[in-house]
Design goal:
Elements: H1 7-10, H2 18-21, H3 25-39, H4 54-63, E1 68-71, H5 78-84, E2 92-96, H6 111-120, E3 126-130, E4 135-139, H7 146-149, E5 151-153, H8 155-161, E6 171-173, H9 175-178, E7 182-187, H10 194-198, H11 201-205, E8 208-209, E9 218-219, E10 222-228, H12 241-246, E11 249-252, H13 259-269, H14 283-298, H15 311-331, H16 340-345, H17 348-351, H18 358-363, H19 365-385, H20 391-398, H21 411-418, H22 424-427, H23 438-454, E12 458-461, E13 465-468
Length: 492
């Protein structure tokens, strides 16, 4: 059925009913949300880990027709949640053609809309606004002005149209009026200057705004949503208390509560499907990568007020895969399988995402990143191999065995080197392998050795590789002297 193109045709459809013609955008979101709940449809697809915490509070706020704010540290999917609100809007709505503020054909708010109805009557042209055009997002920065958000007088419009400056037709509409009948989102709300925050008072309480220099008020139909960092969103921060009081619901977001949830988010967001060679990420490597973020969030050397974004494990896993991909290309292996050594090679994905305390600054981001990887490997080792008998492996290193692994070697070559460590290949069954192929076996062997390093049962150095836990000073009769036993050093 063709869509109405004039007001006369629109009046013959359901859009002319009082329930539709006078419905606000918040009522529209509420009605569509109720339909989703009644049908058991998924809410906010792609948002993982908030099913029992954030999403129920979000649903409550929308059912209450509230303006709301998402309060949380960086990398907690706040912007993604706001953009997912589009799914609660109708696929398209009718507007007066040519209107800058998406005038409702039955209740126009602009002078342009009112004059169009007065001149054309039922022949007034109708356009259809898709839901994607009904979401306006603005990142709050100190240089944002009232004119950007609300509007100002436009002398050029006045000159071209021959209007007086006091004429409504000379208005330059800001982002908020242009978002009429839609959703207006402001990211990092406290970063708005105080006078801009004051400018939001009327729209949040009375539902209208006044543009500078005009004795008129625009009755906007708009849903306001915000994001903020908890550190800034306080009376001592940069938020004005009366504005805070006008926000209907305050919803606190959080990082994943479990490693499994975090890994599923990282797997969903990371770019792992590469052109050419297939990529296979062992689940214990994915777990190790996720645990790096969990360890960082608990580390006292990392600023907890800043947080450790979920983008850290996402970027880290992408770099890990890329380093494994580089090796696969160089060695002509058919499948890309990351190892623990690839995690160490991906330090740049960690160091740039850590805000350090004073103690951490003294140690350096790279040293802390390596320590986080080692601890994450230890936690992964304990979770998968904890309680297993590793005495034969430790004894071999205590007797002077040393194993230096090159990240550039083919998996088959590395695997031959690991066979000289007694009991190592027998132990990797505990790691949990989907397929016992050489690349996966090598990754599992590295995890076991890294786990023993984390437990300080053995040591690892850049020069010697994996060695005994407490190497003796070099000299006659010592394990690393000319006269002592020396383990295989196959990959130097």
């Amino acid at each position: 059925m063709p869509k109405p193109t004039t007001l006369r045709e629109l009046k013959q459809t359901e859009w002319a009913s009082p329930a539709r013609a006078g419905r606000t955008v918040k009522q529209e979101m509420r009605e569509n949300l109720v339909c989703l709940l009644e049908n058991g449809s998924p809410l906010f697809p792609g948002i993982v880990g908030y099913e029992d915490t954030v999403i129920p509070q979000l649903v409550t706020a929308i059912l209450s027709c509230h303006n709301f704010i998402l309060l949380g540290l960086r990398g907690q999917a706040k912007s993604r949640i706001l953009r997912a609100l589009l799914l609660l809007l109708d696929e398209e709505i009718p507007v007066l053609a040519g209107s800058e503020v998406n005038d409702n054909p039955f209740h126009p708010i602009s002078k342009y809309g009112r004059e169009l109805i007065a001149e054309r009557g039922d022949d007034a042209p109708i356009a259809w606004l898709p839901r994607d055009s009904r979401y306006v997002e603005k990142l709050a920065t100190p240089d944002v002005t009232i004119a950007d958000i609300i509007g100002d007088v436009d002398p050029i419009k006045a000159a071209r149209g021959g209007h007086l400056l006091s004429d409504e037709l000379t208005m330059h509409f800001g982002l908020m009026p242009r978002a009429n009948r839609g959703i207006f989102a402001i990211n990092e709300l406290p970063d708005l200057a105080g006078k801009i925050q004051v400018g939001l008072f009327n729209i949040m309480q009375e539902g209208d705004v006044q543009i500078k220099g005009y004795p008129v008020r625009l009755d906007l139909d708009i849903a306001l949503v915000f994001t903020a960092n908890p550190e800034d969103y306080t009376a001592r921060g940069k938020i004005i208390t009366p504005l805070k009081d006008r926000i209907g619901s305050e919803i606190v977001t959080h990082y994943p509560h479990t490693v499994e949830l975090g890994a599923s988010i990282t797997q969903q967001e990371a770019w792992l499907e590469r052109d050419g060679r297939p990529v296979r990420v062992p689940d214990f490597i994915a777990e190790l990568v996720e645990r790096v973020a969990f360890e960082a969030r608990e580390d006292k050397r990392v600023d907890r007020r800043s947080g450790v974004s979920q983008r850290l494990p996402i970027s880290l896993l992408e770099n890990v895969v890329s380093n494994a991909e580089r090796r696969a290309i160089a060695t002509k292996e058919k499948t890309v399988v990351p190892r623990v050594s690839d995690v160490y090679a991906a330090l740049p994905a960690i160091t740039g995402k850590l805000e350090l305390e004073y103690e951490g600054e003294l140690q350096g981001a790279e040293a802390i990143a390596k320590d986080l990887i080692r601890r994450a490997a230890g936690k992964t080792f304990t979770a998968r191999v904890g309680g297993a008998n590793v005495d034969d492996i430790v004894h071999w290193f205590d007797e002077g065995g040393a194993l230096k692994i090159s990240v550039e070697e083919r998996s088959e070559t590395c695997l031959k080197g690991f066979t000289v460590v007694p009991g190592l290949l027998d132990l990797i069954d505990r790691v949990g392998l989907a397929k016992k192929e050489p690349p996966v076996l090598v990754a599992a062997c590295e995890l076991v050795l890294e786990g023993l390093v984390a437990e300080k049962r053995i040591s690892r150095s850049e020069e010697l590789g994996y060695v005994r836990a407490r190497p003796e000073p070099k000299g006659p009769g010592s394990g690393f002297g000319k006269g002592g036993p020396q383990g295989p050093n196959l990959f130097s």
